[in-house]
Inverse folding.
């Protein structure tokens, strides 16, 4: 009993969670606000169409490319130290972006923001592993962290609209500065420090290989989503996969690898990562098709479509918060599988969406699907962090975030391409309007005065949405079965460790972070928060 009490987080940890949650809020706000600011900043800087795409994409490219490196670097030099360095760089880059005088300068500063963002996300998640040693509290903390991320996505359009209504476009980038100042001012007092004393030096060749594998992959997938399958996109994906194979082989040979592949030897860790990746693929593709449906088939304005999506975000935030509770009540495996089944029901609703009057079904399906996927997201991230050794928490968090980036890119590229292929296949060869075959957006533009053509195009796109949703139903149900088959063993093992021996935490590891009001004395690798 005494050991359990010692493992419980105190006031300092919960205040520290507030600081880390504000970082999550910022990162989601920063991404969603830019889409609103893009037209105005493009006019102010004279950005060409290709430059506008790079302004949007360069952040996600650099973020995805550096996540693995920064997660491992935090384990080596100290997670709090890397977080503070990243916060300072993010704040400085935000100011530079706000006062950019050319499109090229803004692209460069957005790249710096992506690199800095890659330090913030895995460091925050890894620090939660140190601060909340009790599995129940850690699950709640991770749920709160992700809920704040979703709140930022929901509030982004509103906050961005208010800023752009009263200030210049650069104000959208200054949103992050107060958050970074708060982190820098309170981080040393509220956050513990941790580094792995057994970690060797960072391998520059592995860093280069990691970037050369991830960046072409993300670029190629985005290019497929935007322009369809083409030689350049295929070539970059092949290059990324090829370099990725070289990267994996190098990691197996190194005594101190950039990415410890032994993490994947843990069945619970590997399975959860795969479940979250494929779940992200399905949700990214479905959301893309659904939002396009609302604006082209249903004919809603961007603002109206955004308002229709608010309930989905609210429900997802609530489900993320409840995920740890459900995992404790029913077991992680059954909670995650139940969420996936609920998500499959939502996607089944999408298979029934008609081309006329389908707005309510689209929204209802998204609400169910979002509520369902939020449970494996919230519970799964907690499982990933507890399944990995404490000294590898930064790497584990980085892998989780990287899988999310890949999930979005693959979902948009693959399922978006499937929807487009179905759309084109449903259009008659004798379609009288040139360009309508390219996409539903083009059809709405070029055939706005031809109701008959529009009706055919909208029906074809709706069939594509139904097809994408049908694929999602199958994937979610298969994932639910895999979740029970693989993760129920993890639940049994966790139950066997509910009464740990003296000096051990509830997850079977030695205490790994500073307690709420005292310096840690659990080993040389744990540093005090002083």
């Amino acid at each position: 009993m005494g050991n359990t009490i010692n493992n419980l987080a105190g006031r300092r940890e919960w205040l520290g969670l507030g600081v880390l949650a504000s970082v999550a809020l910022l990162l989601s706000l920063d991404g969603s606000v830019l889409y609103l600011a893009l037209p105005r900043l493009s006019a102010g800087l004279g950005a060409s169409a290709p430059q506008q795409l790079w302004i949007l994409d360069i952040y996600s490219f650099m973020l995805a490319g550096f996540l693995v490196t920064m997660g491992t670097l935090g384990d080596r030099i100290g997670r709090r130290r890397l977080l503070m360095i990243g916060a300072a760089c993010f704040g400085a880059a935000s100011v530079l972006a706000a006062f950019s005088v050319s499109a090229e300068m803004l692209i460069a500063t957005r790249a710096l923001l992506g690199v800095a963002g890659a330090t913030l996300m895995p460091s925050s998640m890894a620090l939660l592993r140190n601060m909340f040693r009790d599995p129940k509290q850690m699950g709640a903390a991770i749920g709160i962290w992700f809920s704040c991320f979703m709140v930022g996505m929901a509030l982004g359009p509103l906050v961005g609209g208010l800023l752009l209504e009263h200030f210049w476009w650069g104000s959208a980038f200054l949103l992050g500065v107060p958050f970074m100042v708060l982190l820098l001012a309170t981080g040393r007092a509220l956050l513990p420090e941790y580094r792995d004393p057994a970690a060797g030096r960072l391998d520059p060749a592995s860093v280069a290989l990691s970037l050369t594998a991830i960046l072409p992959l993300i670029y190629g997938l985005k290019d497929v989503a935007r322009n369809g399958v083409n030689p350049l996109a295929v070539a970059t994906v092949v290059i990324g996969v090829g370099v990725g194979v070289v990267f994996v082989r190098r990691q197996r040979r190194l005594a101190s690898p950039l990415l410890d592949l032994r993490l994947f030897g843990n069945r619970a860790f590997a399975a959860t990562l795969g479940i979250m990746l494929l779940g992200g693929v399905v949700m990214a593709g479905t959301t893309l098709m659904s939002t396009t449906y609302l604006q082209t088939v249903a004919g809603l304005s961007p603002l109206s479509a955004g308002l229709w999506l608010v309930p989905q975000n609210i429900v997802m935030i609530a489900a993320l918060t409840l995920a740890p509770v459900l995992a404790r009540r029913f077991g992680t495996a059954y909670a995650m599988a139940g969420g996936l089944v609920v998500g499959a029901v939502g996607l089944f609703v999408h298979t029934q969406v008609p081309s006329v009057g389908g707005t309510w079904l689209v929204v209802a399906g998204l609400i169910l699907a979002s509520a369902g996927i939020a449970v494996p997201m919230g519970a799964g991230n907690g499982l990933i962090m507890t399944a990995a050794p404490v000294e590898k928490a930064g790497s584990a968090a980085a892998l989780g975030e990287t899988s999310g980036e890949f999930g979005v890119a693959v979902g948009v590229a693959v399922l978006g391409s499937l929807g487009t292929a179905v759309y084109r296949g449903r259009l008659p060869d004798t379609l009288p309007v040139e360009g309508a075959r390219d996409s539903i957006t083009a059809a709405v533009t070029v055939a706005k005065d031809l109701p008959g053509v529009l009706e055919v195009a909208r029906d074809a796109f709706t069939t594509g949405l139904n097809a994408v949703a049908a694929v999602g139903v199958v994937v979610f149900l298969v994932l639910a079965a895999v979740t029970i088959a693989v993760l129920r063993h993890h639940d049994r093992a966790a139950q066997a460790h509910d009464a740990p021996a003296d000096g051990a935490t509830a997850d079977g590891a030695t205490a790994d972070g500073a307690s709420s009001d005292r310096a840690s004395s659990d080993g040389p690798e744990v540093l005090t928060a002083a």
User: Anything to note?
Assistant: The CA atoms of residues 63 and 393 lie 18 Å apart.
